[in-house]
Amino acid sequence: MARRPPRSALLAAVGSRVRALRESQGLTQRTLAEKSGVSSRFLAQLEAGDGNISLERFDAVARALATSPSALLDPRAVATTGGDDERAKLRAAVNELVDRRSSVELGEVRRWLEARFARRTAPTIALIGLRGAGKSTIGPKLAGKLGLRFVELDAAIERAAGLTLSEIFQIHGEGYYRRLERETLMGLLSDGDGMVVATGGSIVNDKETYKLLRRRAVTVWLKARPEDHWNRVIQQGDQRPMAQHPHAMSELRALLAARERLYAEAEHVIDTTRLDIDAAVDKLARELAP
Question: 182 and 161 in one domain?
Answer without folding.
Answer: yes
